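Hi R.,

Here's the chain you asked about this morning:
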Amino acid sequence: MNRQAQAVILLLLGGAVIRASVTDLYLRYVKEGLRPFLIAAGLLLVVAAVMTLWYELRPSAPRAATPTGGGPTGPASGPATVATDHDGHGHHEPRVGWLLILPVLGLLLVAPPALGSYAAEQAGTALNAPRESDYPPLPDGDPVQVSVLDYASRALFDRGASIGDRRVVLTGFLATGAGGEPILARMVLSCCAADGRPIKLGLTGDVPVGLPNDSWVEVVGRYSDRLGRDPVNDAEIPYLEIESWRQVPVPKRQYE
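And here is the predicted structure, written out as tokens:
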């Protein structure tokens, strides 16, 4: 792979990163707050590629001729010199460099789905360490919109004290829990999809039925003091008593 091919691949990679960053595609890979850094990285790759192409394709500077004959007063004062290009042989980079085109094709041609029920069933719930139970009261409203992570944290570490008898609205996807029962889950990221971990909620009451895994639902319910165990890491899983539910489209932001 010569420098021109490397620059073209670099240009495509930078363009793919920028394309993903200015659309919602990047949300399948990283958290929302990383968009400015992705755009900056993509622009840097594009600039580096353009500069490399310009350097490689610019016309060569003309070389000054070296006199070989003697002047009017005698022979030349020094031996004749001939400019050469190094050793006259091209340099060949390892062919493994062409593998760099694979991530480019992945970004341009493939749009993988966000982590869903399969990832949630293979990993233990992220809420498995004791925390201080100092949660503020829920916002006003009936029912009040809360995230799966917020409800699970309050239900598990606050034992529902900050929830009380309030009705809450949560949105998540369905997965299969212990004993084949449906659970509500949402993936949380620290940085990117590689470190995604699930937040799992057991369901009781009017449990959604007849829907396949990865179906997104909005549920309205109340705190339940029931606790279960995650079969993957044996961590506690809080429950939600559902009063009503409805299927919803896949949200733009699938990670919390």
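One quick note: DSSP finds five helices and six strands in the chain.

Cheers,
M.
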